[in-house]
Amino acid sequence: MTSADSAIDYALSRSWLLVSGDRPETFADSVASEADQLIFDLEDAVAAARKPQARDIVADWLSVPGNEGWVRINDADTTFWSDDIARLRTVPGLRGVMLAKVESAAHVADTIAAFGGRVAVVALVESALGIEEATAIARAGAVRLAFGSGDYRRDTGMAATDLAMSFPRARLANSSRIGKLPNPIDGPTPGSDLDLLRAQTVIARDHGMTGRLCLYPAQARIVNEAMSPTAADVDWARAFLGEFEREGGQIRNGSDKPRLFEANRIQRLASAYGVTTAV
């Protein structure tokens, strides 16, 4: 296989691995990772002087038959934005783009229009203004919202604590629901501490995030595990649905509807991710 696992649709994708666009020597390891989606980064990971070269490297790689991936393009308020789109718009292996530093619905709408309406756009929200405009952004045609947590903290002065990050995460989750989008993609955990990554991913999941940006190939497996139902979850869902059907498939009390929704959700995700039962 020459790309991340193509069996996982972007709406259900858990791990989104950022790959520096000017480091083609890292592409093979990224492809071999367990990431649901690869994102070739033309924005923060690439110095301004190297952006034209990185753009060509990524476009050429995506033009090879069988190679696929997303590209994080530069934000709409820079001169690099139009150059990124011009180079990528006809590349056959482009699955979609992640638009950096989205702060308005117009940023999304303009990007969709510039690609001729043929390319999916994930809106990366990275500032106080972006968080305030998240609902309008979600309604503007993006396929998912993502959280640029590092730039958001730099913009607002907030700490990298669970409490401080609960507001923007909740805002993105609510806005995604209002915009009828899949739940959002959380920002990454820097560093190589996989135990910390797992703990922070569980917290992000509890805040309504169902995907996570990854900075290193090894992080993808941890994110996938933490964002997936467990075998015990699957056992519970099957037991509940079995009991529900045996009792006639009729709502019995006020807790049945939310439990029925959760059981069906777990089964759908387990099927998508290949999670099996514990017994």
UniProtKB/TrEMBL annotation:
<dbReference type="GO" id="GO:0008816">
    <property type="term" value="F:citryl-CoA lyase activity"/>
</dbReference>
<keyword id="KW-0479">Metal-binding</keyword>
<feature type="binding site">
    <location>
        <position position="151"/>
    </location>
    <ligand>
        <name>Mg(2+)</name>
    </ligand>
</feature>
<feature type="binding site">
    <location>
        <position position="72"/>
    </location>
    <ligand>
        <name>substrate</name>
    </ligand>
</feature>
<dbReference type="InterPro" id="IPR040442">
    <property type="entry name" value="Pyrv_kinase-like_dom_sf"/>
</dbReference>
<feature type="binding site">
    <location>
        <position position="126"/>
    </location>
    <ligand>
        <name>substrate</name>
    </ligand>
</feature>
<dbReference type="GO" id="GO:0000287">
    <property type="term" value="F:magnesium ion binding"/>
</dbReference>
<protein>
    <submittedName>
        <fullName>Citrate lyase subunit beta/citryl-CoA lyase</fullName>
        <ecNumber>4.1.3.34</ecNumber>
    </submittedName>
</protein>
<keyword id="KW-0460">Magnesium</keyword>
<dbReference type="InterPro" id="IPR011206">
    <property type="entry name" value="Citrate_lyase_beta/mcl1/mcl2"/>
</dbReference>
<dbReference type="Pfam" id="PF03328">
    <property type="entry name" value="HpcH_HpaI"/>
</dbReference>
<feature type="binding site">
    <location>
        <position position="126"/>
    </location>
    <ligand>
        <name>Mg(2+)</name>
    </ligand>
</feature>
<dbReference type="InterPro" id="IPR005000">
    <property type="entry name" value="Aldolase/citrate-lyase_domain"/>
</dbReference>
<dbReference type="InterPro" id="IPR015813">
    <property type="entry name" value="Pyrv/PenolPyrv_kinase-like_dom"/>
</dbReference>
<keyword id="KW-0456">Lyase</keyword>
<dbReference type="GO" id="GO:0006107">
    <property type="term" value="P:oxaloacetate metabolic process"/>
</dbReference>
<feature type="domain" description="HpcH/HpaI aldolase/citrate lyase">
    <location>
        <begin position="14"/>
        <end position="161"/>
    </location>
</feature>
